[in-house]
Amino acid sequence: MANAAFQKAPNRFPILNTYVNALSLDETVAEVEGIIARGVPTQHVVVNASKVNLMEADPELAKIVNACPLINADGASIVWAAKKLGIPLAERVTGIDLFLRLVEVAAEKGHGIYLFGAKEEVVAKVKAIFEEKYPALRICGYRNGYFAEADEPQIVSDMAASGADMMFVAFSSPKKEYWVHKYLDAIGIPFVMGVGGSFDVVAGVTDRAPKWMQDHGLEWFYRFAQEPGRLWKRYTIGNAKFVLLTLKYKFTKKGERQNG
Question: What is the DSSP string of 69-135?
């Protein structure tokens, strides 16, 4: 795959069943600029507790994620685990923060973007919001995330012909990782990033946590309070599994050092 065509981003550390690049938001943006300049189709991911749990149960997903040259720590849970495991991760780079910064950079530097996913009314609203905020922004294409498998060849062909430099994919995990991995080379867009529910936030369908909650690692609790029926399993059972997984890795590494 194209991801393996060049050296991975710097400051990359193994953590649990994956890796993380210990980079600031600004450093990550600089890496993305380099990816665009090289023009090699590259899949980007962010990791959090939920994704680590999914990867633990799905080796193929883990393989896809770990092949990505640039992996950011999206969740406060990853920052917590990094401290427990002695990994020098100073800050998290959330998917939505990186997405919004890259749209701003695209408008400033003339990069074309493609918006893919969510409901038609949502992605159309995101397009309109960005066009109003950034008149110079080149939106090379957009499409909702509802389609049949038979539609995919035409969708991929349209993306490949769009001339975009960056594509943002608003699917949930693990669908976005699998879909991007499958079509990355055929799409040919240099930088392809999964952004989950970010389109819904930009469009005002869902609210993001207040800044003080983001800064104190409580964004997950705000999301849980908004949709407890849908998210209770992810944030109760899932977080407990993540803590146990972190402790397992911590004591396994400690045992390896003592026996080494």
Answer: SEEEE-SHHHHHHHHHHT--------HHHHHHHHHHHHHHHT-EEEEEES-HHHHHHHHHHHHHH-T
